[in-house]
Amino acid sequence: MSNATLSDTRKRQGELGQFLTPAPVANFMASLFGPLPKVVRLLDAGAGAGALTAAFVSRLCHKKDVVRAIEATLFELDPFIQGALSKTMQDCEHRCAEAGIRFTFTIHKTDFIHDMSALLMGNLFATTPPAFNVAITNPPYRKIGIDSAERRALSSAGIETSNLYTGFIALIQKLLIPTGQIVGITPQSFCNGPYFRLFREEFLRNMELRRLHVFESRNAAFRDDSVLQENIIFHAVKGRAQPRELVVSSSSGEHGDVVAESVLAFSDVVHPHDVEKFIHIPSAPSHDAAKAIMDGLHSSLTSLGVTVSTGRVVDFRLKDSLRQEPQKGTVPLVYPCHFDAGTVRWPKPQSRKPNAILDNDDTRPWLVPSGVYLLTKRFTSKEERRRLVACLFDPDNVTAEWLGFENHLNYFHANGRGLDRSLAVGLFAFLNSTVVDQYFRRFSGHTQVNAGDLRQLAYPSRDTLHAIGIDMKSLDLPQEKIDALVAKHLHAHK
């Protein structure tokens, strides 16, 4: 394939949110199903070239168990890959014939979301929606806007979500019969955050979660497509109560890699009283250790008298008020690019981002009074070793009466004003510690850190944070010294 052709293919796949499943991942997914009925009615929505159905068929032909027939229904919208899908299904038919299994297939070259949403709301001449007892899926991953055709179609079927992949899973869930099984590979981002709360509630209400599998590297599952979104594989059964225990496993995603498994109480994965229904997934022993430490903390931001908010300045909405360099009538505008060794270095010469914003009647509602603030990045890059990156804004270093915090930041404050310095430094050390980073990774499947996620964390007491802040003589400490400092004070104040 020429570079131009490959580029066009990648562009088309990106527009569709399509990332094809590598064979080792497909084979692993096919191995996760429990006992199957004699006649399998299989759904593969967003089938691509058919790798998942082929892996499922190969496993059943090899096992030669009770399955006597497979009726496969596949949806694939991309015309450039439909020929390969048809060929794969013909190969499956031949493979099954040799194994004594009847295999039939139907390929729908239409939009799964529009077709099934219409069926579920009774729009297509009262046609009864199909019913499946098995689904295997790698749904497309792409955000969908409120006014998009996909969002409207899903809403008509009673599904409210902001991404194609959760829309696919929600539809598949409705099409499964009771005791029907699904194995899917999706981004891990549905496990936490406010945007997926409705999806989590519906999924956990209707599906028994039996297995969760995570990858040790963000790009392991789809390395060839340069996908940096963290992925998860899940196995669930429709219409049963949540189990007392479930299997959580991890691997590198490489062919032949060892899969590490552990059995966890379901209440450790989804906390019984968590109204957000976050799904916590330890993928390493360090995550378990972090959870044990964090479980011993009982303060909330509210009890500390602290609030965390998303930066108010949305730059493209105030672009006429932005200035590249400070000048008369402006105040500092802080972006993540101003983070430097634990503190804010402002202004930043030759920055691609503006350093200042006008202070006037139009911008004042989006500014905050100067003071000591703790800032965290809302998005981290793949190069950064920590998911949580905290930084101190020190008014001694940046002289101003008012400040602008850009929308890619979260800022900790006390009723809209700055924090006590030692408390802010204590929070700085705590949030930059490895234990918090490891704990945060249990329930954050993406690189975004929302203010809501930070509100959900448990924190040390105010006295402990003050003590850490007083003991921390420099913000630019090596990671091991930050960890040692935090560990010392958490232990001393038990």
Question: Keyphrases for this structure?
Answer:
494 residues, alpha/beta, Rossmann fold, Adenine-n6-DNA-methyltransferase TaqI, Chain A, domain 2, 2 domains, 16 helices, 22% strand, elongated, disordered N terminus
In a nutshell, what does this entry contain?
With 494 residues, this protein is of the alpha/beta class. It has 16 helices and 20 strands. Strand 1, helix 3 (51-63) and strand 2 (69-75) form a beta-alpha-beta unit.
What does this structure look like?
By secondary structure, the protein is an alpha/beta fold. It has 2 domains: 10-283, 3-Layer(aba) Sandwich (Rossmann fold); 301-492, DNA methylase specificity domains (Adenine-n6-DNA-methyltransferase TaqI, Chain A, domain 2, Alpha-Beta Complex). 33% of the residues lie in helices and 22% in strands. It has 16 helices and 20 strands. The protein has helices at residues 3-16, 23-30, 51-63, 79-99, 112-120, 149-156, 164-175, 197-206, 266-269, 285-295, 301-304, 421-431, 434-443, 451-456, 462-471, 479-492, and strands at residues 39-45, 69-75, 102-108, 132-137, 176-187, 207-215, 231-238, 245-251, 260-265, 307-310, 322-323, 330-334, 339-340, 343-344, 356-358, 368-369, 373-377, 390-393, 402-405, 409-413. The strands form 4 sheets. The protein has a 9-stranded mixed beta sheet. It has a 5-stranded mixed beta sheet with strand order 11-15-12-19-16, with no helix packed on it. Helix 3 (51-63) links the parallel strand 1 (39-45) and strand 2. The N and C termini lie far apart (62 Å). Mean pLDDT is 87; it is low at 1-17 and 221-228.
